[in-house]
Design goal:
single chain; 15% helix; eight-stranded antiparallel barrel; alpha+beta
């Protein structure tokens, strides 16, 4: 089980490194179409990153198979569903803009959840006991952006309250949140004047949590989130 966990972490790290490399390069490498020198007295077009951008992305989150969480739920960590699906949304402004660089400030919100039902080892049928897992949060963001108005890549970091809970479906989770640091990067490609395709990779550094009557405890874990969707400027 330990070797499987190590392999999983190495795989996520390798995939993340490759994705970040692919994302950081293409958008930043986009070169705007050359524009002829405008006649005297006319202002050249503004090719800088726009002032405002909004994102809406579908997301995949890797919640891990925490041994403490599994023990609190009285299940094997191997049967815990670690893959969650959800949505994330954000709004960003770029108060400091140069020809190929912009400093961004903004905020994001995200929510992903899943559920799983163990199988009886003897009958090979569902046990009828359902467990829910959910991660949600909001955070302020600071980003470094590289590119131009038709496409740019970015590195970002932020902090905000985040809820990460696992519980029996028949119980109402406590909804407790902790201030959580996140970091990552992504890119936006504007094939249209105001509409872009965007991808994002993010890591949320969650801390240890003590079990309550309704919610299982957990060990420190880095939640890996990959998302893709649209951007509007």
């Amino acid at each position: 089980m330990r070797s499987s966990g190590i392999f999983s972490r190495v795989s996520v790290a390798a995939i993340s490194a490759c994705m970040l490399a692919m994302l950081a390069a293409p958008a930043a490498a986009q070169t705007p179409t050359p524009v002829a020198t405008p006649p005297s007295g006319r202002t050249p077009p503004d090719n800088r990153i726009p002032v405002v951008a909004f994102d809406l992305r579908g997301m995949f989150a890797s919640l891990g198979q925490d041994t403490l969480t599994a023990a609190n739920l009285f299940v094997s960590p191997l049967i815990m569903s670690s893959k969650a699906l959800g949505l994330s949304a954000g709004a960003h402004v770029y108060p400091l803009r140069a020809q190929s660089f912009a400093l961004g400030l903004g905020g994001e919100a995200m929510l992903a959840r899943n559920s799983f039902e163990p199988i009886n080892a003897t009958t090979l049928k569902p046990t009828g006991t359902v467990y829910n897992r959910k991660v949600s949060g909001i955070s302020g963001q600071v980003s470094l952006n590289f590119g131009h108005r038709m496409g740019w890549s970015y590195l970002t970091g932020g902090v905000g309250p985040m809820t990460f809970e696992s519980n029996l479906a028949t119980l109402t989770p406590d909804g407790l949140s902790d201030m959580t640091i996140n970091y990552g990067g992504g890119a936006r490609w504007f094939n249209y004047d105001h509409l872009a395709f965007t991808v994002d990779i993010r890591f949320y550094r969650t801390g240890e949590a003590v079990a309550t009557l309704n919610t299982a405890g957990r060990l420190p874990h880095t939640v890996f989130i990959m998302s893709a969707g649209i951007s509007v400027k």
